[in-house]
Design brief:
5 helices; elongated; 158 residues; alpha+beta; 19% strand
Length: 158
């Protein structure tokens, strides 16, 4: 059974993206509704997979992870087995916070956060370069961040 989003659902999703800790009461108040239908809608959004999970976005620098690195990876082989093994191994590395299969010059683009450039070098030497089927590795060191958000603009979708 599919669930079609309406304008109220999109507004709820927008508000939860801004602050997932908001109470049902505050969302209902902002939308001019009562809490029960808002609560039911949120549960439906969760049940149907529109809301995957709730998280706290951490300030990486405040917790000592001052360096962001993007890594372009090419693999020596492209069989399903190679790809699955690579992703499984990548998921075991806590330094990697994103892994995307991409088109273009790389097979995968990774995003890492580490303490500093020395920690990144240690990661490369002790973890990444030990992976089988690894071809080329190209590191892109982030010098600064101009935008950092997980919020999707839903106004053009609804």
């Amino acid at each position: 059974m599919s669930y079609s989003l309406d304008k109220i659902d999109f507004k709820i999703l927008s508000l939860l993206q801004q602050d997932s800790d908001r109470t049902t009461k505050s969302i209902a108040s902002e939308l001019g509704m009562t809490t029960t239908p808002i609560f039911e809608r949120i549960k439906k959004l969760e049940k149907h997979g529109y809301i995957k999970k709730y998280v706290a976005l951490l300030n990486h620098k405040k917790i000592g992870l001052k360096q962001t690195v993007f890594v372009g990876i090419t693999l020596q082989g492209h069989t399903r087995s190679y790809l699955e093994k690579f992703v499984k191994q990548i998921n075991s590395f806590p330094e990697i916070i994103e892994c995307h299969r991409v088109s273009g010059n790389y097979d995968y683009l990774l995003k890492l956060v580490v303490e500093d450039i020395e920690a990144y070098e240690t990661f490369i030497i002790t973890k990444l370069t030990l992976l089988p089927y690894l071809g080329n590795v190209q590191s892109l060191i982030a010098l600064s961040t101009g935008k950092d958000t997980n919020e999707i603009d839903l106004s053009s979708i609804s």
